[in-house]
Amino acid sequence: MIPVKAVAPLVALAAVAVAFSQAPLTDSRPTVPASIQIPDDKSDTVTKTSMRSVNFWIMPGAALRIRTMRGSMRSLRGGPVLFDDKTAFLIHLSYAEIGLNGNDITTLMNHHIFAYPGAPLKKLKVHTAGSRLVQTGIMHKIIDLPFEITADLSVTPEGLIRLHPVRTRILGVDGAALMRAFNLSLEKILDLRKAVGVTVKGNDLLLDPTKILPPPAIEGHATAIRIEGDELVQTFGSPADAPELVPPDTSEQAYMYYKGGTLHFGKLVMLDADMQIVDRQPTGFFNFDLDRYKEQLVAGDWKCTCSASRSSAHPSPVAIGR
Fold it and tell me: What pTM value is reported for the model?
């Protein structure tokens, strides 16, 4: 005899199963976008970059918590790197350790990855639990199904982040058992063709850690992932892949350093760049918002050597949305 409390979930899953039997879902794999055409590396268009202890804000409410980063920046259109147009350049990660906390991932999920009409997942919230990631929200297919998924994390050989469910609750009951009873899987339920940087295989979600982010474009190969406290920490490449780029002022614990190439920001063009950006009021991690960097620089100050071959900027903090 089926318990009364399981009847509603069974009816809901039955409705979904009937819908699939009548109208099978087409291939849920997204169309692969055309490859980004990147100009050939030239000394005047490529700028070596290193960062340490930087909260790099990519949208209101979400930041890349850069613990360390070595790589480069280059224009997607040729010429100098244009800071004022974040769609015009690319950041290459040769080696990096970058964290995202639960609020960062929640914001990305709701306002970027699944921010389109008819998205199958909505009202998402993400947090860590030990070495696992927990996601709650609404799964929509015919009807709204509240869910909670606890997942293990791993990195595939292709550099994708795999979220493998170890516990699934749908409508408050064992979701994995219900899906098995109706021969369903997340791959059959979720149409992710419009989602940004996410695919599904079986019951596993596969995230491309560079494609799930808004501009500027980022490229790099994820090699490891772990949970530390409330952060999901991603490793890209290895230290052997990128010689250390030592900044002019090694006493600074949080900085961004740009070396070589041409940088263009505002009305300033810096040839053969040699610029270190640090916080005017150091408080641990340095908050940098590309959308509002002018406010920070105007409130801060600049220092240049007598030869004007090297400069440092000391932005002041501004009210950055968290």
Answer: 0.82
